[in-house]
Design goal:
The protein is mainly beta. The strands form seven sheets. Strands 1, 2, 3, 4 and 29 form a five-stranded antiparallel beta sheet that branches. Helix 1 runs antiparallel to helix 2.
Length: 415
Amino acid sequence: MRRTVEQDGTCVQAIPYKRSFEARIEGVEMKIGRWARWLLVAAPVLAGCLAGCGNFWQAPSSSTTTPSGASSGVFYVLNQGTKQIAGYSIVTGTLTAVTGSPYTLSAAPYSIAIAPSGAFLYVGTAQGIYLYTIGSGGALTLANNSSVISSDLAATMQVDSTDSWLVEAGPNQAELAAIAISPSTGLETSKTEQTVPIPAATVNQLVISPDNKNVFVALGSAGTEVVPFTGTPFGTTLTNIPVKGTAGAAVSVAVDPSNRLFYVGEVAVSSGTSNTGGLRAFNYSSLSSTLTEVASTPYPSGGLAPYSILPTANGDYVYVANRTVSGSSTGNISSFSFTSTGTAYSLTSLGSTASAGTTPVALVEDRLDNYLLVVDSGGSPDLEAYSMSAGTLTSALTSSTGTDPVQASAIAAAP
C-alpha cells in the first residue's frame, strides 16, 4: 500500500481522507448543537499542522497530585502540531519527562503502537511508519537507520499479542494491512504486506481482540467491520455491523479484556437527549454464530462524539471520552461499571461525567493501573491524569506536553 500526502515545505498537511471524515462528522454534530460545530472547526482531531509549528521545547507545567502521590508506568504522547513524541512517567504524583524527551519527528504523526513485549514503539507519520526501541526508563532510540520500515500512512495501528504482526489501516485504501515483524528486532521480516479489503477507506480506529482472533475497524458511516485474524493473518469471512442511527458514524472500537463484550462508539445513535452519542455493546462469543447486541444498548455516552473507549485492565469498568458535548466548549469522560450474571453481560452508567479539556480524543490506563490518562487535541490542557476509585474519576494532574498549541493527538502506555 503506497500512499502519499502533500507537503508545503514547512508543515505536513492533514491526510485528505481525515479532512473528509471530519467534515462528515461535523455535518452530523452541526445538526445537534452549535457548540459541536464550533469545536470541530476550531480544533479538529487530525487537522493539518498548526501555524508556526516548531521544535522548541518548554518543560511541562503540571498541577495538583494524587492524595497518595501514586506513580505510573511510562507513556508517550504524540504532538501532531509540533511533530514530537513526548515521553513521561508520573513519579510520586509528579509528571516527569523520560530522558531525551521530547523526540523530534520529521513529519506529522498520526498513530502510535507499542509491542506487547514493551521493547518497541511504532509511530505512523505522514512519511511512513518509524520504529523505536524502548530502553531503560522508557528512553527511545530511532531504529532501522532512521528510515521508515514502511511507507504506508497508518492512521491507526496495533501490534498483535505475538509481537509478529503490525496491523494498520490508512487513507484512500479500502483495505486492512498487516506487516510481518520480528519479535526480537521489531523490524519487518517481509516486504510483502498481507491485506484484506474492507468496505470503506474512511478508517477511524482499529483494535485487535485480546484473544488475537479478530480485528475490529470503525469505518464511519460504513459501520464497523469485523475481520477474522487467523495468524496468516486474515480470514476471508468478514462481518459488517451497520450504524444504528440514520445519520450515524462508527468512530471508536474496543474489546473487553476477557473477550466478553466488544464496544462500538457511534455518533447520532441515542435519543431523548441533546447529547446523541452512544456506546453499543455486543456479545463477543456471538461472532461465531448470530451476532447479538446487548438489549439495553446503545448506552448514552454523555456527549456527541464518543471518540475513545477504554475498558479497564481488570474488566470492572468502561470509560468513554466524548470529543464534543452539547452546550459545552469542552469534552467529558463518562463511566460505566461492568455487570455479569452468569454469561449475561451489560454495563451500568455511574451517572456522572468527569470534565475534560478541549476535544479529548484518546484514553489509556497506565501500566500500574493507577491513572486514567487523557489527551486533548484542542488543549486546555494537553494531558490529564485521573485517579480511579470504584469507577469514579478524580483529577490528579494536568499538563502541557510542549509549547502550545501542540495538538496532542494520541497516547500509548508501555506494558
